[in-house]
Amino acid sequence: MENQKQTTKKGIKKSRGVNASIVILVCLILAVLFFRYVLGNASNFEDGNIDNHPLNLLGTMYKGGFVVPIILTLLLTVIVISVERFFALNKAKGKGNLIKFVAEVKEELTKGNIDAAQKLCDKQQGSVAAIVDAGLTKYREVESLNVANEIKIQAIKDEIEEATAIQLPSMQQNLPIVATISTLGTLMGLFGTVLGMIRAFQALAGAGGVDSMALSVGISEALVNTASGIATGALAIISYAFYSGKVDNMTYAIEEVSFALAQTYSETHK
């Protein structure tokens, strides 16, 4: 049992996601390349000159200025982390339906069948099942101890809490980055909007009449950055809410099994 316990904890510790710093760096490189060679392609502008009016949306986005690759970096980061979290949290959840798994474990605990409950954990796999299995293993261990039942029940709860504390950070990994981008993306969009409006007003106030080219560039910069910033912030908010909900559901499932374990031990060891 001790070997099984060590293996379980070792498996929990190995559950790690991708490094956010590497993701951001790669996304920045991709965003700059996309800005320079796709948005800034000469075919997107009149007479093949990037200083002329844009012919399509890509050219208009290029006119958004240096803020555009920054916002693109944030957008790509949200997309990459969202995809990574999808696979990571599905792996943590395990192979089967989590609600069904919890219900079946509770049913076996009610019958006092710890072996069957552990087999369900082996079948389910994933981080949640590993945490539950750690509690079941501790359940077996405390049965042989000559101490008060209250101490045994607390030991079971502590074991589950310890296993959860090891796994929870990896389940929440990179979500704070997404939460930050939900605000930062919108702020960068507003920053680009201000820069564009400054350029537009400079064109209106220019000596010798209105510079229509500078005016159009300023307005394009303002509108493109506003739209892309809001889109990035909105996507980040949706992603954060969705994956935070998944983490909460898994946490609730663990707490439910923990309560069931304590209650079962209390009822069967009076």
Describe the protein in words.
The protein is mostly helical and 270 residues long. It has 10 helices and no strands. Helix 1 runs antiparallel to helix 7, helix 4 runs antiparallel to helix 9 and helix 5 packs antiparallel against helix 6. The two termini are 24 Å apart.
Features:
270 residues, mainly alpha, 10 helices
Helix-strand layout with pairing:
Layout: H1 2-13, H2 20-39, H3 57-62, H4 67-93, H5 98-110, H6 114-124, H7 126-143, H8 149-171, H9 175-204, H10 212-268
Output the structural class: mainly alpha
Mean pLDDT: 84
Total DSSP E strands: 0
Query: So what's the overall shape?
Result: rod-shaped
Cα gyration radius (Å): 27 Å
Please count the helical segments: 10
Helical residues, percent: over 70%
Largest pleated sheet: none
Amino-to-carboxy terminus distance: 24 Å
